[in-house]
């Protein structure tokens, strides 16, 4: 457009060029609107301006309040589409502004909308998955829609996320998207025959408390150590930490150039993404006005440090309960991945963190995908994200879609001493089996609390363990290590979660 024509448009259509009505970026062309729930459209406009929203032949109006906020709810409907959604502002009488052209969003589907969040194993892109060479070229599916939220931390709750908008799934749009979330969406779309939208709001290397609203954390006095930890980070952080990181890197480069051993330095947690509430504010809070079907979550590795792991259950519980409160669409399914097997260091306790994740199952409408069998002891980022997505989808099919499908591996219920042996009882234990031969990973202890490796055998839907070194075992545990060797599964091929009978 040349300058002359642009100036002419300014004179003739000033209200179009400087449109007052604004809709957040989570609403846009190619999006998926949650079926069977009211359709919420919101935004800002000039104070007092009337805003009309039209979708599926229905029009609702709202008037912007004194600070310009407006909100409209349209009737719920069944899956379908594509549809157009239009938003049009009408300036208040006496404002002198001209009628605005409508904002029109096209190719909107009605189906199921899921949020995928967590740290790097959820962020892990489809292009790096072990199955990418086969699946990425076939990623085109017009019924799968993707929205990637860019990383942003904030000291206060933002009103919009940073994103390039919704996209139809294809090899280009899917390659950088969460692999686990994409496989989850593909499986649900194929089985449930409805459009599926997924929002990818992830940030690698982050702690759970960064994703929780600050007020929700503050309501639990037991979580005060999180704020002390944050205080220590800020006391020792800032410019000084930046200089230390630069000097660490300089020494590594010099050693590498000189052919000398690369020096190791303490890790510096990032101030930007490790503060309580910071990622909730920047990446999750702006999504809460949008109705969703549920959440899939993969996080925990960064909370496995010895001083952090014991608090994980309380943090995670606060996260789930508060997310449900803030969305206000009921206790939606919250499906999460138990951290896998990784050697890590003695400064981290992955077994204790897994146990904390099991404890969170006490919350209704939750499910956990066990991945102890598909990790990589030498890499914190295992590449088998296909199975992760399928196990999460199984949980969704059972909890959210009402399918009669087994969705969990065996979960420890109780242990009963029986003379020279001890028997473990499980839920989700139909068809117990040991993959690859004899059962491995079991240990027993007596009254002295000293653990020894045990011989274990399957007896129906229970496991009986014993050791000649323990004449009267009273305790049992399984897979209790950062990177254990485990092979107990149920008949659906789902692995048992590591456990201990007493704490």
Plain-language structure description:
Residues 1-18 have low confidence and may be disordered. The protein is built from 14 helices and 23 strands. By secondary structure, it is α/β, with parallel strands linked by helices. The radius of gyration is 26 Å and the shape is globular. Helices cover 25% and strands 26% of the residues. The protein has a domain at 411-500.
Describe this protein with a few key phrases.
503 residues, alpha/beta, 11-stranded mixed beta sheet, 14 helices, 23 strands, 25% helix
Task: Set down the secondary structure blueprint.
Elements: H1 3-12, H2 14-17, E1 32-34, E2 39-44, E3 50-55, E4 58-63, E5 69-74, E6 80-90, E7 103-118, H3 120-123, H4 132-135, E8 141-149, E9 163-169, H5 171-174, H6 179-192, E10 196-202, H7 214-218, H8 224-235, H9 239-257, H10 271-274, H11 278-284, E11 294-298, H12 312-327, E12 334-337, H13 350-359, E13 366-369, H14 385-399, E14 411-418, E15 421-427, E16 433-434, E17 442-445, E18 452-453, E19 455-459, E20 462-466, E21 475-478, E22 488-489, E23 499-500
Parallel strand pairs: 1-7, 7-10, 7-11, 8-10, 11-12, 12-13
Antiparallel strand pairs: 2-5, 3-4, 3-6, 6-7, 8-9, 14-15, 15-20, 16-22, 17-18, 17-21, 19-20, 21-23
């Amino acid at each position: 457009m040349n300058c002359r024509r642009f100036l002419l448009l300014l004179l003739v259509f000033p209200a179009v060029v400087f449109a007052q009505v604004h809709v957040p970026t989570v609403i846009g062309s190619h999006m998926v609107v949650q079926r069977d729930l009211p359709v919420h459209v919101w935004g800002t406009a000039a104070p007092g301006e009337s805003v009309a929203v039209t979708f599926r032949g229905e029009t609702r109006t709202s008037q912007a309040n004194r600070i310009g906020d407006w909100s409209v709810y349209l009737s719920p409907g069944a899956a379908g589409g594509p549809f157009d959604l239009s938003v049009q502002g009408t300036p208040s009488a006496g404002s002198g502004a001209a009628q605005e052209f409508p904002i029109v969003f096209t190719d909107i589907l009605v189906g199921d909308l899921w949020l995928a969040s967590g740290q790097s194993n959820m962020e892990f892109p489809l292009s790096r998955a072990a199955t990418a060479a086969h699946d990425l070229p076939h990623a085109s599916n017009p019924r799968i829609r993707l929205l990637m939220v860019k990383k942003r931390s904030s000291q206060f709750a933002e009103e919009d996320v940073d994103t390039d908008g919704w996209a139809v799934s294809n090899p280009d749009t899917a390659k950088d998207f969460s692999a686990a979330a994409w496989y989850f969406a593909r499986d649900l779309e194929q089985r449930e025959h409805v459009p599926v939208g997924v929002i990818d709001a992830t940030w690698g290397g982050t702690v759970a408390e960064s994703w929780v609203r600050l007020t929700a954390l503050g309501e639990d006095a037991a979580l005060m150590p999180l704020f002390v930890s944050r205080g220590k980070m800020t006391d020792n952080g800032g410019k000084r930490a930046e200089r230390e990181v630069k000097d660490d890197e300089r020494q590594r480069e010099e050693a590498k150039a000189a052919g000398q051993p690369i020096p190791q330095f303490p890790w510096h947690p990032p101030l930007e993404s490790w503060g309580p509430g910071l990622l909730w504010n920047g990446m999750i809070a702006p999504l809460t006005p949008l109705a969703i079907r549920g959440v899939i979550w993969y996080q925990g590795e960064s909370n496995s440090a010895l001083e952090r792991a014991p608090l994980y259950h309380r943090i995670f519980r606060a996260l789930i309960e508060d997310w449900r409160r803030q969305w206000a669409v009921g206790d939606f399914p919250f499906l999460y991945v138990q951290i896998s097997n990784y050697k890590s260091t003695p400064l981290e306790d992955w077994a204790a963190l897994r146990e904390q994740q099991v404890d969170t199952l006490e919350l209704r409408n939750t499910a956990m995908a066990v991945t102890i069998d598909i990790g990589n002891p030498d890499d914190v980022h295992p590449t088998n994200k296909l199975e992760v997505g399928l196990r999460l989808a199984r949980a969704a099919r059972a909890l959210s879609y009402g399918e009669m499908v087994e969705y969990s591996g065996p979960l420890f219920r109780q242990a009963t001493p029986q003379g020279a042996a001890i028997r473990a009882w499980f839920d989700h234990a139909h068809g117990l089996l040991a993959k690859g031969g004899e059962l491995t990973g079991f240990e027993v202890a007596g009254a002295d609390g000293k653990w020894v490796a045990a011989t274990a055998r399957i007896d129906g839907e229970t496991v009986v363990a014993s050791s000649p070194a323990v004449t009267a075992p009273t305790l049992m545990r399984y897979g209790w290590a950062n990177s254990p060797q485990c092979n107990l599964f149920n008949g659906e091929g789902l692995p048992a979660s590591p456990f201990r009978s007493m704490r």
